[in-house]
Design brief:
heterodimer; A: 432 residues; Nucleotidyltransferase, domain 5; 3 domains; 7-stranded mixed sheet; 17 strands; 37% helix; B: 770 residues; alpha/beta; 25 strands; 38% helix; metal-binding (chain B)
């Protein structure tokens, strides 16, 4: 049974009920998600994504057909990572009085709960600044909300879902990330929810391309740092990600995945590294006793990594000219910590900063090597490690620019860590 | 007149004298061990020092006085007056060059410098080349103690120079590490063309260099996450100060309690990408989410994995970008530590799916010192010569598995040594090797074959008494010979003991290396040629029968003669040769005979074996036959003595004697159709990848199309499987029942292996075109 957000809406019983074979919706998506099988094989590069997206109101006569193939509310996309669960929620704002009446209480209560709060429990947070308003999705207008909470609080979330009788809505929950597999059983047993599992990299690529395409107004989704090698003039600038391919997509979550994206449907995972956000936080927790990412970042912003790291100038007294290594370059991360005296003289803030610099620079050099091997000049960094982490972004921007002698450009996206979840939501609306 | 030299080292001053050395040093508790460490210091020159974080490597060049066995034929004019001896054997002194490399803990620097100062006599050396991170720290001390000017050399270029040197001069220098294999070390055959390669040096940071030729290299990248990160971060996390202790901790830890694995995120594997559940998704990922204490061991292990994987990944990315498949790893992070070699190997395998192998070097720790030394010795042109590792004077690769050999792991007070002798001849490949890069001289690798190792180690130990007796008997006029022989016994027995536990100490353990080590040890104690008198006696006897043998061969039919000639070579190879019925154990005699009915070979290269009957009554008649057929002959014999093998010096005299009796041999010599060359070796075995350059030239000039290798050492223990680009004949009698058994035959089984390279016209084709 499908409800389309309405209880016992008998007039649409002819809709496809099989959650795994979700109906295709709208034509107003204009194939930008390649939902048209005839288009799929044809033009992999296609017109630029920004052209393809039309957010204008769609003609009424088409809306009926759209309605027929639309999945029922609520519309969620979920990405259950190693550290964080990312949730995107589409809040319809065009609910008619009639709909309002028909809307079941459980659905209403979920909508109200999510949209009226910006914090859930002790750890859930809605990133209000990322909210996308007046978005048209599947013929419905509404706001897209971005919510996150730690993966270890998933049981609390499931409990809440159970309390709010989420399962009675008979919705399909599209989920990606490793947790979609790991916790599939918990979803079923604890909350009576059936997950539609999706590959995280498919979702990531889809999410990135989608968000970039819809962000035509407001702050630019994509940005870069101008003058990355000059700290005084290093400023954030919007970047128009037109004709984005080929693209190196670096997703820094707990670990790191590096993808080479050649078109919407053509990408490959180049490599990955286990030295990611989880490593930064894990090491900071062990080294400084902190317990949250924000705390760790705060400490890092106050520390000095050069007291912890051994620099080229510490060894050579200046630049290592023979090999073009500048004196300020790190020769050995944590290298000064080999000495007992220096171990005793550094602060926790210094250690946090060194950890941040070490992890960030390492991601930078692996990325740079991948870009060279794949012959790609544009690199987009995403993932929650970059959330409120300007330090790392500037470091990455610097590293890409400096070591490539200006050949490589580091790009960032405002919705850093949410692309997987967005991709999962899109899968709900337009199964690929 | 001809002379022949065998090397032997003058006994060096012992370190027993060192007790008085450090009376004025600050740390009186440090004394040098009573072994011979800084040998031949009185002749030392051209010092170089590489001071690392914990170990110092000292290099110097010395001239060594050798006792050489020399043979000299008696002048014909005074022949009547001379004794009835065939030729004169004398022991003389000769001076040649040796490189010494000594590795010791930094704590010994001052004591060592004092010792050197006290023993350095005849040196004009004014400068000491220095490299390594600690060079500046000890600069003043070195200059004050030795009165030498410290001249600093760039670390990276020293490493690469050193790396080139060991790769070129030490066979089995590089190895692949396989933790769970029968032998942890799988030594690589050295491709004669060592370039290009990638050198990943993991010191406190990581440097990655692409080396394209002797003089051309480029630092193409690096990483700040290296040994210093392991050490520094490890010390912070575990409160453990020493690098070795951190590794010990890591060896006992479980990284999965600290790392977030794929299965921690997925509940299993990430099948879509083929990532298994045990892969690390996020290093230290669990310490961010789990609110608990982590053990030092687990954190150390996690850290080790994180760093090794990261370095491995970068190395692969660089290797791919520059299209290089040979990647050598060095630096203190690697330095013989099985754990880091294992994790790096694992990482490389993972990231390249086995396309690139992580290679390690037996003398990795010496690269910097060797390179610095070479930079200071350019006027002596060390790179123009070939050098050979002296097994007697080198410590070999220390045992590394802490679990297996806990005692040897305690490095404190250990002085590790490498000595390399300058070889008289420059050594190159036999140009006729089918595939030089994959040629392996040795038939059985005792490092991998445990039963064979067991047998041969026992065998050599068992034979030691006999060797000692013969050594003493060879020097009846020297009363102290017995004492020296006893020292030889101890040294060689100790080597055998070491090899029992560390079969990989000098590269792959083989019968050849056991034999060579014995020769090196004999030389070490001034027994340059224990068999000289026996050889002379046997040669003398055999000469008396030469004409008779030749005459009886002449009387045979052509076909009978060919068989008799082969039998002669085989019989000379063993004394109690009976009438061995054919078919032999390996028998391609019929094909050989067919081939002989065809056109003569252009030129035959013959690697000879024993003195006496073998060379005179076996090989020489065959040489004679070949010459008569119109085939030129190149006789290759040992440059230096080994067992009762005929040396080049002896063979020159013997050939002259035979020429005096035999016009065929005489005209051969006169017309330059019979040439005597030395093979550049002093081994009872034969390494076709290290032969005298002059031999290689002759082989090429004469368009050699037949190679004959005779004797067990050269045709069975080595080269049994060697494939050549021309016809070859391997002849031997198996004189060892264990080996015969191994090969599926009985004692005194005959191997007659005639081979025609694939693609060459077969002997049948040759027969058709008379």
């Amino acid at each position: 049974m499908a409800f389309n957000g309405h209880q016992h809406d008998n007039e649409i019983v002819d809709e496809d009920e099989t959650p795994s074979k979700l109906p295709r919706c709208n034509k107003e998506m204009h194939g930008h998600l390649r939902n048209d099988p005839q288009n799929e094989a044809a033009a992999p590069a296609g017109p630029s994504t920004s052209d393809r997206w039309a957010s204008n109101a769609t003609p009424r006569h088409r809306k009926d057909s759209v309605k027929k193939t639309r999945p029922p509310f609520p519309w969620f996309g979920m990405d259950i990572g190693g550290t964080l669960v990312k949730l995107v929620y589409f809040e319809p704002k065009d609910i008619t009085a009639e709909e309002e009446q028909e809307e079941v209480e459980n659905l209403k209560s979920i909508r109200r709960y999510l949209t009226s709060n910006i914090a859930y429990g002790t750890t859930g947070i809605r990133d209000v600044h990322l909210e996308l308003q007046d978005l048209t999705l599947c013929g419905r207008k509404g706001n897209l909300h971005f919510i996150r909470f730690p993966t270890h609080d998933l049981p609390v979330f499931l409990q809440m879902g159970r309390n709010k009788h989420f399962s009675s809505l008979h919705t399909t929950l599209c989920a990606t990330g490793g947790g979609a597999y790991k916790f599939e059983n918990d979803f079923r047993t604890m909350a009576d929810l059936q997950l539609h599992k999706l590959d995280e990299l498919d979702c990531l690529v889809r999410g990135v391309l989608y968000i970039d395409s819809v962000m035509s107004s407001g702050p630019s989704e994509c940005y870069y740092f101008e003058n990355p090698t000059d700290p005084d003039h290093c400023v954030q600038k919007p970047y128009l990600l037109e004709n984005p391919y080929p693209l190196l997509l670096v997703n820094i979550g707990s670990g790191v995945s590096i993808l080479a994206v050649y078109s919407e449907n053509n990408y490959k995972r180049v490599t990955g590294t286990s030295l990611g956000g989880g490593t930064f936080l894990g090491l900071c927790c062990l080294l400084t006793g902190c317990s949250t990412f924000e705390e760790a970042l705060e400490m890092a912003s106050e520390g000095e990594s050069t007291r912890v790291d051994k620099l080229v100038r510490d060894i050579y007294g200046g630049d290592y000219e023979r090999f073009g290594l500048p004196g300020w370059a790190v020769a050995s991360s944590f290298g000064n910590m080999m000495s007992k005296e220096k171990r005793e003289s550094v602060s926790k803030e210094d250690l946090a900063r060194a950890t941040l610099v070490t992890i960030t620079n390492n991601i930078g050099s692996i990325t740079r090597m991948c870009a060279l091997n794949e012959n790609i000049e544009r690199v987009v960094f995403v993932g929650n490690f970059l959330r409120v982490n300007t330090l790392s972004m500037k470091l990455l921007a610097y590293a890409m620019d400096y070591w490539s002698k200006g050949q490589l450009k580091a790009l960032f996206l405002r919705h850093e860590g949410y692309f997987g979840a967005v991709g999962a939501l899109l899968e709900l609306l337009h199964p690929s | 007149m001809c002379a022949h030299y065998a090397r032997s080292v003058e006994t060096s001053p012992t370190m027993a004298e060192c007790g008085r050395v450090d009376s004025h040093t600050m740390d009186k508790s440090i004394t040098l061990p009573p072994d011979e460490i800084f040998r031949n210091l009185e002749n030392a020159k051209r010092f170089a020092i590489d001071i690392g974080g914990s170990l110092t490597k000292l290099a110097y060049y010395s001239t060594v006085k050798h006792k050489v066995a020399k043979v000299r034929s008696f002048d014909h004019s005074t022949k009547e007056a001379a004794s009835d001896k065939l030729y004169e054997i004398s022991v003389q002194e000769e001076v040649t060059a040796r490189l010494h490399f000594i590795k010791f803990e930094n704590a010994y620097i001052e004591t060592c410098l004092d010792f050197i100062k006290d023993h350095l006599v005849n040196t004009e050396t004014k400068v000491i080349k220095a490299t390594g991170g600690g060079a500046h720290k000890f600069k003043v001390l070195i200059e004050r103690k030795l009165g030498l000017k410290v001249d600093k050399e760039d670390e990276m270029s020293c490493l690469i120079k050193g790396c080139n040197f060991v790769l070129k001069n030490i066979p089995h220098e590089a190895f692949v590490y396989a933790k769970h294999a029968d032998s942890e070390f799988r030594f690589q055959t050295t491709d004669p063309d060592i370039f290009p390669y990638l050198l990943v040096n993991i010191g406190s940071g990581v440097s990655i260099a692409k080396v394209e030729s002797e003089d051309k290299f480029e630092r193409i990248g690096g990483s700040s996450i290296g040994g210093g990160t392991f050490w520094g971060l490890g010390a912070l996390l575990t409160k453990t100060k020493r690098f070795d202790e951190l590794l010990q901790l890591a060896s006992k830890g479980q990284h999965s309690s600290v790392d977030m694995l794929v299965k921690d995120i997925y509940g299993g594997s990430y099948g879509y990408l083929g990532l298994t559940g045990d892969l690390i998704a996020s290093s230290f990922g669990k310490s961010a989410t789990a609110d608990k204490e982590f053990s030092k061991e687990d954190m150390a292990k996690s850290l080790l994995h994180m760093i090794s994987n990261d370095i491995g990944q970068l190395a692969c990315l660089y290797a791919r970008l520059h299209n290089l498949s040979r990647v050598y790893f060095g630096g203190f992070f690697i330095r013989g530590h099985p754990l880091t070699m294992h994790t790096i190997t694992y990482s490389i395998n993972f990231f390249t799916k086995g396309e690139v192998q992580a290679l390690f070097l037996r003398h990795e720790g010496y690269l910097g010192a060797i390179g610095a030394f070479l930079k200071g010795a350019e006027e002596d042109n060390p790179n123009q010569y070939s050098w050979g590792e002296n097994y007697a004077g080198s410590s070999g690769l220390m045992s590394v598995s802490p679990d297996m050999y806990p005692m040897q792991r305690a490095r404190s007070g250990t002085f590790d040594m490498l000595e390399m002798d300058r070889l008289d001849r420059q050594l190159v490949n036999l140009p006729l090797l089918q595939e030089p890069s994959s040629y392996i001289p040795d038939t059985v690798d005792l490092t991998e074959d445990a039963p064979a190792r067991e047998y041969w180690l026992f065998c050599f130990e068992d034979a030691l008494d006999g060797v000692v007796k013969r050594a003493v008997a060879s020097q009846p006029d020297m009363p102290e010979a017995a004492v020296r022989a006893e020292k030889f016994r101890q040294k060689y027995r100790h080597k055998l003991q070491t090899l029992r536990y560390q079969p990989f100490a000098y590269g792959s353990l083989t019968v050849r290396s056991l034999l060579d080590t014995r020769e090196h040890c004999l030389n070490e104690f001034n027994f340059p040629d224990p068999y000289s008198k026996i050889k002379e006696r046997e040669n003398d006897v055999a000469l008396k029968y030469y004409q008779k043998v030749v005459k009886s061969l002449e009387e045979l039919s052509w076909e009978d003669r060919q068989f008799a000639l082969v039998r002669g070579v085989l019989a000379g190879n063993v004394f109690d040769w009976g009438a061995k019925a054919r078919p032999w154990l390996v028998d391609s005699y019929d094909q050989w005979l067919e081939r002989l009915k065809g056109p003569p070979h252009k030129c035959a290269l013959l690697f000879v074996d024993n003195s006496g009957v073998d060379i005179i009554l076996g090989v020489m008649p065959l040489v004679r036959e070949l010459l008569s057929r119109g085939t030129e002959v190149v006789l290759a014999s040992n440059s230096g003595p080994a067992l009762n093998d005929v040396t080049n010096g002896e063979l020159q005299i013997l050939t002259e004697r035979i020429a005096a009796m035999d016009p065929v041999i005489q005209s051969g010599l006169r017309d330059d159709r019979l040439t005597l060359v030395q093979n550049g070796s002093s081994s009872p075995c034969l390494d076709l990848s290290r032969l005298d350059k002059a031999l290689a030239m002759v082989v090429r000039e004469r368009k050699t199309d037949l190679v004959i290798i005779e004797g067990m050492g050269r045709a069975i223990h080595t080269n049994y499987f060697a494939t050549l680009s021309c016809e070859s004949l391997k002849l031997a009698v198996i004189k060892n029942s264990w080996l015969a058994d191994r090969l599926g035959g009985k004692l005194f089984s005959v191997v007659f292996k005639y081979e025609v390279p694939a693609g060459k016209p077969s002997q049948e084709a040759a027969v058709l075109t008379p």
